Amino acid sequence: MTLTQALQQSAHTLSVNGINDSHIEARILLGHITKLSPVQIYTRTEQTLSQEQERALHGLVERRLRQEPTAYIVNHREFYDIDFYVDSRVLIPRPETELLVDAALEFFKNGTCLPSPLLIADIGTGCGAIAISLALNLPQSKIYATDSSYSALEVARLNCEHHKVTRQVTLLQGNLLEPVPEPVNLIVANLPYVKSSELANLSPEITRFEPRTAIDGGENGLRCIRRLLEQAKEKISHRGCLLLEIGQNQEQDVISLIHSCLKNVSFTFMPDLNGINRVVKIDL
User: In terms of C-beta density within 10 A (0-12 exposed, 13-18 middle, 19 or more buried), how is residue 84 classed?
Assistant: First the structure.
């Protein structure tokens, strides 16, 4: 079987079984088996797969048909143009979360009288995508990356070692901001914000494979965000900033929480590419 045949056959199988973007997903699976780039797959049209590669590809397609996310199958996800190792111990980074990194970099770009090193706390770090993206773009920064899950921190450690930022990023296990040992200039967090009652409406890829603790935000979706805001005053420096990812239509509830937990702050909402207010920026 040639690369072209393998790609077409895999894409067709995925498509007729209701998998969206079947051609892209088939290409990712084929690339994982053959270790070829997309350009190589499309240009080496007559290259053939070994029988072992054909069996391996069939196995990966079968896993995808059982709704396992492709990112877990290939143990890879790109975020902010950086490659990250991922598996079922961590939430798969989403493109919309890149807005948090953009906002963080903008804060430091426009900041005045900021100390060196810049102190950042990434709360609920998961695979470490946000912390590592900031570390690579802000080499003068020191980042505390916390997570309540020890297994998630194991994945983050693998990514920190791969990207050679272990001296910049300190991994800490614990409840939100509690492990952070000193006030920081910036707190950035992508915490669970889906209501418990709405979990059943999510796709099987999410509910069956991704860690529930990284998704379930409690009765109103804001359980973890409330706790973070309650802790924030003691962990953020004067003229510091707090960046939070939130869910669709949560603005009013978040505003109420801000007024309840923090005094004398200003805040703005930042929309994602779909026009949804995805990040709230709180200036202290």
Answer: buried
pLDDT digits (tens, 9 = 90+) for 2-43: 999 999 999 999 999 999 999 999 999 999 999 999 999 999
Q: Same domain, yes or no, for 188 and 87?
A: yes
pLDDT tens sequence across 158-179: 999 999 999 999 999 999 999 9
The model carries a pTM of 0.94
Residues 58 and 153 in one domain: no
Of the candidates 190, 176, 184, the one whose C-alpha atom is nearest the C-alpha of residue 272 is 190
> Are residues 126 and 180 both part of a single domain?
yes
How many domains in the chain? Answer: 2
Cβ-proximal residues to 146 (8 Å cutoff; 6+ apart), any chain: 121, 122, 123, 124, 125, 171, 172, 173, 174, 176, 177, 178, 179, 180
* Amino acid at site 83: D
Strands 277-283 and 141-147: unpaired
